[in-house]
Amino acid sequence: MASGAILIAAKGLFAKGLYGMGLTFHDVAAIRSVLAVPGFALLAWLYGGRAVINTLDGLRRHDVLLAIFAGVLCYYLGALANFYALTIIDASVERPLLFAYPIFVVLITTAIDRKPPSPRVISALLLTSLGVVLVTDALNNTLTDAEWSGMGWILFCSITIAIYFLISGELTQRLGSGLFTLIAMTAAAVGFAGHYQVVQGWQNIALSTPAWLTLAGLIVFSTVLPLFLMAEGVRRIGASRASLISTLGPPATAIMAYKLTGESLSVEQLIGIALVLVGVLALELGRTRSA
User: Fold this and answer.
1) Which residue, 53, 63, 95, 209, has most beta carbons within 10 Å?
2) What average pLDDT does this structure show over 85-95?
């Protein structure tokens, strides 16, 4: 689970490089989504093997439609909202809002189960949320009036991620993480395929070799592998704990940016990294002791 969060944290670095090569957010989002489908299919086959075929034979219509809904909601509509918002607000504002989704996971779960979260989960949630805010340096940013709409789009994306986590927590138990992710991501790719044809036109793609290589890295290391690992993590430990552990993403982004692009890390960011790590470790150590 943690490895998936760290891998997906590199998405922003890949995207930053691609934007520097002249690609638009439509290019990156659509090409990434469509070309990732064969990778998800391969992982589903390698990980599930014969079990995938047996599951396909017994698929329930309700499960398929729910997986399609999760993919379209989060990785098509949510992704579009996220990329659009980044044209309005800075990434330092976007990241703490986007990684607010563990809060929505806990709130939705509490409403559904009508049972409050444990003190350990609440403590971990508070620590990781504060850590994400400090890591992203959000407290030092002043938003303009135009940026409030961007915040709304990011919060919408955050809610879609929370819903995706909750749906995957249920469906991965029946479908397996590989098949669920394949169905969800294929549905999102179909949405992006039609969207890109209307906006840009697939016949107009003309990318350089470095751009294709960077896209390949984005697809393999920050899309296919991490999303599969995160789905498997949700299947094993549940949506609430998995969403909290995934908050390792912003600290990983900050560290990678520091190492690879020379960005500096402030004292507040270092404290934020420590808070996220403490929150996740407290959650996992508590789970181990209670096991």
Assistant:
1) 95
2) 69
